[in-house]
Structure formats: structure tokens, C-alpha cells
Amino acid sequence: MKYFGKKFITLIMTLFIVSVAAFIAFQIIPGDVVTSILGTESTPEREAQLREELGLDRPPVQRYLDWMGGVLQGDLGVSYRYSKNMNEMMPVAELIGNKLPVTLWLAAISLLLIIIISIPLGVFWAKSKSHLLDAVMGVCTQTAMAVPAFFLGILVTYFFGIFLKWFTPGGYVSYEKDFLGFIGYLIFPAISIAIPKIAMTARFLRNSMLTEMDADYVRTAYSKGCSERRVMYGHVLRNAMMPVVTFLGMIIAEIIAGSIVVEQVFGLPGVGRLLISSVSTRDFPVVQILILYITFVVIFVYFLVDILYRVIDPRISSK
Amino acid sequence: MKEFIKEFLKNFKGNKYFWAGLAMTGLVLILAVVGYFWTPYSTTQMSAAERFDAPSLRHLFGTDNFGRDIFSRVMKGVGTTVFISVLVVLCSGAAGIIIGALTGYFGGIVDEIVMRVTDAINGFPSILLGLVMITLLGSGSHNLIVSLAIVFTPSYVRIVRSEFIKLRDADYIKRARLMGVGHLRILFVHILPNIFSVFWASVMIGFNNAILAESGMSYLGIGVQPPDASLGKMLSDAQGYLITAPWYALAPGLAIVWIVLGFSLLSEGIRRLQE
Amino acid sequence: MRKKLLSYLLMAFLTMTTLGGCAGGTDESSGDNSSKEPVYGGSVVVGIQQDIDSLDPHKATAAGTKEILFNIFEGLVKADENGNLMNAVASDYVISDDGLVYTFTLRDGIKFHNGNPVTAEDVKYSLERVSGLLDGTVLISALSTIESVDIVDAKTVQVTVGSANTELIYSFVAAIIPQGSGEDAQADPIGTGPFSFVSYAPQEGIVVAKHDEYWQKGLPYLDEVEFKIINSPDTALLNLQGESIDIYPYLTDSQANELQGSFQVLSAPSDVVQALFLNNAVEPLNNVKVRQAICYALDKDSINEFVAGGNASLIGSAMLPSLKDYYVELNDVYGTGANPEKAKQLLSEAGYPNGFELEITVPSNYAYHMQTAEVVVEQLKAAGINAKIDAVEWNTWLTECYQGRNYQSTICGITCDMTPGYLLNRFQTESSKNFINYQSAKYDEVFQKAQSSLDLKEKAKYYSELQQLLVDDAGTAFIQVPPITIAMKNNLGGYKFYPVYVQDMSTVYYTE
């Protein structure tokens, strides 16, 4: 328990460092939200006015503390750039709340694809005795792992979108408007995310199974007269799945972080794209929360994986 | 001893991964080196008459929207990508060894702070971190190398650090300390050679990640500046012509896959040799 | 009928593909369906490039926002497709002889989207809001010269300004909004335009619906228009082909070629002046001979060919050819082709016989400028100038180049905003927009004369002098007015090009 407590504190500390770093970075990079809003029409007077309106005339440390105070009380602030209606700006919580489902559904579909394809593939591969098949699988998975996400995105667009015409590239429909259409569209970006991860997971599962198959208990089971089916699915797969589950945990973290590029390629209005555009418009409140959110998810998933690992294998004790 | 060498050679011969990887990586290196001195066509010379020529004997990979020979540009681009990635791995690997060794060996409050910072960088999406760094430093290959090196350093720090923690309490190190060997000597003469195999494996993975990151950044337009050829930038330019000139996107994309795949196979082969 | 359609298609095809085929202006702007009968109803999806920067018409500054808000809001006057003004909320106006008092008469029966009639109070409120009379915050700087807004009677508003300027009337395109709506936190954007605001989702787009009580009888045709944000031109092309958008107004040349036949592809000059802007204050560009050498070295014909498919209008100075009364043809001064010998000669005279290193900063979000830069680098090489591109983010460009003036040269575009004075204003020595640090006492003097002149002929004469001065000093290497090329589904018609940056959807209709 003490171990988890310590982990939790380091998580909070890491998030704090990230938010300070993001704040400092925003102080240093050229241009701020005021230059971004006023563009080439800027005059010194308009700039001063707008800075005051947005509270940017206060000293940086105070601005950071005010922002922090707000977040700790559950107030995530208001976007500098996105309007809600004519005079009100969009609250960050609402803005991200609208975009988050896109990213989460994308991650969910990708994960589903990974699980339903990689596990049978891995088992099949581990069981196969053919050298040829082994070599083919080896080359295919190595190749799949070598394709960068954006190139894969382009290939998927070309193959499914232009060649087969199974979907309209860029023809995203909002989940509020047409949920089935939304899911249908997300399948293709999800494929681009999933392919390299499927290859990775299948390899991992196969190696894990091969290790298990050499274990003593397998020989014992066979000698006791268990059928191969029983040994494979009852013992080997079950034991081999343990490390795979934790491996999948890490993949979730990678999917969340990796969706930024794929959202860009497929024109999905998810949090990744929101983040990129908010960096370029210097919409600090939005960027800060999104960075904290992504870092939190990534670290937290690793944290969960760590816990899971301990639960599964009690031999790993806390130092 | 003779037996051992025989065994080793036998392993070498039967190691398909190694040979395939070596062949692919070798081709990449040859293309890169030759491309540095000579390309079939100029990589920047434009020609209105030859825009979007399909692949042919004259232009192996066809021509792009400015009528430039894609094969020549891929040659140059491969060179740039490999060069940048090697430098990134060298810089971040060196920084990783120094920081990881010191924090792992000495521990203490500095270690705690460094670990939190590396956690933070690790949790941060690397492409985004690179983006912020480039906005801070400005675009161009030099700054790209610096940014990517900073992005990749933490992963080496972690690996080196954990190895140093493992070894610092080993008996032979304790004995060395008792004999009055200086800390620096212990760090770099006694411990460092022993973590080499672990470190080597992470360098292999790191090199591939560096290639993917470099092309990713150039794809987003913040890496190598046009008109210099770079695989990522070519790919993003080509995206607009997927229908009329699909070869334009395929050539640089497949080149990236080729480099990464060749190197993965090579490192897999080396790993098997070591076993 | 069929034959006519074919010939139109052929004509459009020829203008797109032949070398130097001059872009069609407003003449053929209505496209090849102009002969078909418009049908009322239906909805279209228009692809746009940028997100909205504000839903408040007075605070919006991005051109990409203004072009959409044009459909929702109207000023006392508004732009028409020929670059002239037409009456909108006002049915008539009179400017006093001294140019200081503007008297506007409100249009009878004009209504806001919420059904309320537009009153003199609304006009007074709107004008006071933009000019800073309301709370001291000037929202539209050109209108800060307004000294008072008086209601004469229920239909008449009198505006008194501090100084006379014949171009000020163009600024009265400022939106008229209901009294108090600028401060009402909950208000949806309400105006008098052909379409009313329905919804807006960040990063997705904005939806507008037909304003049933629009004052122009018979307009608009469409029931609903969705402006959908598409983050890259590449996806836009795929969207068009996949029929998830109906109109896309920012095609690149190669995309236009790709869509020929399956879409109506129409082209017209934009209101942007693209140039290789030279910072007159830094070495070696502070030497007029070096700047002239660069102008000689550029091969504008081939730039036009590579990036605009021959559809751009090449220019020699800072004026749009579409502003016919003011434009002077100055392409001959440095020629539109490359002249590297002349450039080299000038460079040696200037003391750079071996050329020099030039950094070209380019905002990376503009693919058009990036492509131009790639071509320019290659052309400068022939004259011995070793140029290098530095692609920067838009915000960095604004801070470092535009405001900080900390750059050597940059390729970008400046917009015209309808008034010729707007283009020329920025080259005055003291102008805050003079980011190229152009310095000419003569220019400043002539500009002052032009500003105070109330006679249009005389004004045009001064403006032509200014253009000539800019070219002679090679203040900057002007390149072209890029074309706007739009793709529209075959069963749509009525699209109008404007010399200003707007997407007027009120005249667009289905033909079947």
C-alpha cells in the first residue's frame, strides 16, 4: 500500500512538472494569443486592450497561480480562441468534453481490432510447425511494425478510400448526428493505428507462448494424457496471456498519444487535432489542460499496468 | 575454442535475419553515400515539361509536381534521414549514458528530480514535444537534431540508470571502491562495459524510433526545409496528388519502411548472434 | 442547350489548361449553369480552410472568418461583385461636400434574423461600438475617426467624422447588430444578412439557414449552408470526390486539373498581392541595386506556371489589376521572365560579384507561398544568390517578421480590403504596417496628397505615382495576384466571385 502511495505522489509531481514546463514554454515561444487573434490588423492599442481583457497583463507567476487555483477548484478556464456564441468564449471543459469522445472511440475501436486479430494470430503462429509460415509471419509482422503511422494513414486512405471506395476520406460525421456513420468512419483510422500494434502483440504473444510451451508443466500435462487442445488453451494460453495483458496496457497509452498524427491525417476533430491547432493559435488554457490530460492518461495507464503486474505475479515484491 | 568459432560461424550462416537486414541496410547506406556525391538528376532543378511523369526507365520513381526526379530526391532524402537519425542517437545516447550513470550511481535528490523530469518527458507525446521544441528553437536540420535528441534522451537515461543501480552494489564494484578506485573510473571503466549489451539493444530500437520521428516531423513541415529533399516532407507534399500521381507518395513512404525494416532485421539478427 | 453547356465546359477547360490562359474575371463568374433555371431550396456544404476566430462581426479579424460572416451580417453598405458598394441596411446615403458628414437613410421594412425591425438606435449602437464611442475600445480602426452618431429621425442617422477621406465609405460595411447584443453574454450572432446563424462547433464548422425576410427579394435560394472546416487541401479534394462537400473555394492548380470534367471548376483573381517582401533595412537588401537584381532574377512567368497553372495575374507593383481605375501596368520594368545576366551585373555593381546568402522566411501554413518559395530559391540560384527557406509557424511569422521586422525576406500575401489606399498605406515610412521598412520621403509626401484629395481623378493620378515609386526603388519584389479557383458540383449554379474575400452563398442555387 505504501508503494502505491509513493507512486501516486510521484504521479502528482510529474503532472506538476509538466504543467510548469508547458507554462514556461508558452512564455518563451514567439507570439501569444493576442498576436494570433489580431493578426496583421494589430495595433499597439488594440493589443494592450486585448491583453488586459484576457488578463494577460498580469505577471506570469500570478497568472500561473491563478490558473492552478482554478483547476484545483475544478474550473478548467475558458478558451481564448473558440467562441461559444457571439460574446462568450467556450469553456475548456465543454470544448474538450465535445472532442474527447472522438479520441476515446478511436482508441476503443483500435484496441478492439488489436485484441480480436492479434490473439488468434499469435496462437495460430505459435502452434504452427511450418517453417515457411513462420518465416512469412516473421517478415510480415516486422514490415508492419516498420510502417510509420502517417504513411499507413495514407495507404489506408488510398486503398480503402480511393481504390475500394469503402469510405469517403475526410467525410467525418459527428457522433451526435449519426452514431453509426461515425463508427463506420472511425474504423479506417483505427485500422491505421492497429496494424503495427497487431504485429507487435502477435509477436509478443507467440514468444510468450513458446516460452510457456517449453515449461515443465506442459510436459506433465501431456504425460497425464491431456489433449493438445486442452493443454494449449487451458494452460499455455492462459499463462502466456498474463504478460500480454500488461503489454496491451502500454499499447493503450501509445494509442492515446499516437492518435495525434492519425487524427491529423484523417481530419478527425479529436483532442489530438485540437491540441495541435491550439498550440499554433497559442490558446494556452486549452493546451495546458490537454497536455495534462494526455500525460495523466499515459502515466496512469503505466501505473495501472504496474499494479496489475503485481497482482498477477505476487513474486514481484515492493522494494 | 575451435568449436566455439565453428559454432559461431554456423550461427552466422544460418542467420537469415542478419543477412537480410545487412543487405537492406547496406543498400540504404550505399544509396545515401552515393546520393551525397552524385544523383542521376539534380534534386532541385525544376522542369515544367516533366511534371508528374509516371515511373519509367528515364525516371525510375517518376517525377513530382515541380518535375523533379523522385528517385534522385529519395536518394538525397534517405541520406538526410539516416544522417539526422544517427546524430540523434549519438547525442541522446551519450547524454543518456552520462546522466543515467551519474544519477544511477550516486542517487539522492538529484536522481529524484531527474527521474521526475524524464517521467514527464516520457509521458508527453514525443511528436508534440518535438513540435514545441522546434517552435522554441526554430526549424531546420540542426534544431531538429537537438530537439529529437532531447526527446530521446530520457529513454536512455532510464535504461542506463537502472543498470547502474543494479551494478553499483555488485561485489566487484564494492571491492574496487575498497581498493580506492575513484568514482569516475568505477563508473566508466568498471560498470559501463558491463551494460553494453543492454544499451546496444536500446540503441537499435532508438535508431528506428529516430527515423520514424524525423520523418514524422518533416511530414508535419517542421523538419528539414524545402527545397532540400526529405522523405517526410516529400510524403506530405505527395498526399495532395494521391489520385493523379500515387507513385509520388509511394516512393518516399516505401523508402522509410525499407530503412526501418532493414535495420529491425539487422538488429534482430545481431540479437540472435549474441544468444 | 446541351451544346451551349458543352461549349462552356470546353471554355472552362481551356482557360484552366492553356498556358497563360487569362483567368476569367467576374464576367464568367456565374459558371456554366447560368443558363439553367434556379430551383429554390436544398442545402450545400462548403469546405473552408480555417476555424472561425470570433462570432462577433466587429471583433473578427481573420479573412477566413469575414468571408463567412458576410452571409450573416451586413453594414449600411456592402460590397458587390464588381468591387463597388451597394446599399444594404441603408437605402440611401449622402456625403456632405466637405466630406465630414454622412447621412444614412434606413431601408424600409428591413428586419434582423430575430424578426425585429432595424431601428436607428441599432445603427447608432453598432457604429458607436466599432468606433470606440461606446466604451473607448476601438474595434475597427478606420472608423475611429467617427466623432458622433446622431439620430435625426426614426429612419435617418447622421455620422460626423473628424477628417475627410473619400475611401472612408468603404468602412461602413461594418455590421449592424441589434442594440445591446454586443454586451449580452447569451446572444447568438444576429444580423440582417441572407442567412441566419444556426450553430457552430469548434473544428467542425458553422451552419446557417435561410433568412426568410431578407430584404433582397428572391434571395437566398438555398435553405441551409454548412461551412465545414477541412484542415488540409488534400483532404478537401478527397471530400469533393467522395461528395461530402459540394463547394470548395481554394483549389490548387493541380487539384483543379484533377477535378476537370467531374466538377465545375471556376477561376478568378483573388484580392491578395503576393510578393517576395524584402526588408529594406538589412544588409545587403538596403542597397537598391541588390533589390533590383532580385526583381530581375525572378521568373514570374514560370512561378505562375508552376504554382498557379498560368492562372495568376502577374504584377509589378502593389495594386490589384481588378481595381481598374487605379491600376498601372508595371510588369515591363523588370520583365516577367528571368534576366540573370542583368541581375548579376547589378550585383557586381553593388559589390556582390559572387552573390550573397538570402534567407526567405515563409509562413508554413500557406502551401501556396511555400511552393512559390521553392521555385524562387531555384531561380535566385541562377543569379548567384544562394537562398534558403525558413518555414515558420504563422504566429512566429507575425511576431518575428511582421511586427518585429526581424527577417531578411519573406514570401507572403497582403490583402486589399477593397480600398486601393489600404494596399499603398503600409509603405509609408512611419506606418505601423510597413514591415518591409520601405523609406521614401517622396512616397510619404505623395501619399499624404492622395489621402487628402477629394477628387477621384486626382487621387488615381497620385496612386499611380506611388506604384511607380515602389517599382523604381524596388521596394519589394512583387510577384502575382494568385487566382481563386473553386470547384462546385455540376448541379449548382450562381456562384459569384468578389474582388474581396467573401463566400456569398445567397446567389447559389440548384439547377435540378
Structure, explained:
Chain A has 319 residues and is mainly alpha-helical. Chain A has 12 helices and 2 strands; from the N terminus they run ααααββαααααααα. Chain A has helices at residues 2-28, 33-38, 44-54, 60-72, 92-127, 131-146, 149-163, 179-213, 216-223, 228-266, 271-281, 284-312; strands spanning 78-83, 89-91. Chain B is mostly helical. In chain B, 51% of the residues are buried. In chain C, helix 7 (300-308) runs antiparallel to helix 9. The interface between A and C is large, with 49 and 50 residues.
List keywords for this structure.
heterotrimer, B: 275 residues, mainly alpha, MetI-like fold, 11 helices, 75% helix, flat, C: 512 residues, alpha+beta, D-Maltodextrin-Binding Protein, domain 2, Dipeptide-binding Protein, domain 1, Dipeptide-binding Protein, domain 3, 3 domains, 6-stranded mixed β-sheet, 4-stranded mixed β-sheet, 21 strands, 28% helix, disordered N terminus
Largest interface: A-C, 49 and 50 residues
What sort of overall outline of chain B do the alpha carbons produce when their principal axes are compared?
Answer: flat
Number of strands of chain B: 0
- The structure class of chain B reads mainly alpha
CATH homologous superfamily name of the domain at 82-245 in chain B? Answer: MetI-like
How many β-strands of chain A, per DSSP? Answer: 2
Low-confidence stretches of chain B: none
Q: Under CATH, the topology of the domain at 82-245 in chain B is which?
A: MetI-like fold
Radius of gyration of chain A: 24 Å
Oligomer type? heterotrimer
Mean pLDDT of chain B: 84
CATH class of the domain at 82-245 in chain B equals Mainly Alpha
Kindly state the percentage of residues in helix of chain A. over 70%
Gap between N and C termini of chain A: 12 Å
Strands of the widest sheet of chain A, in order across it, are: 1-2
* Biggest pleated-sheet summary of chain A: 2 strands, antiparallel
How is the biggest beta sheet of chain B arranged? none
Uncertain stretches of chain A: none
Kindly report how far apart the N and C termini of chain B lie.
17 Å
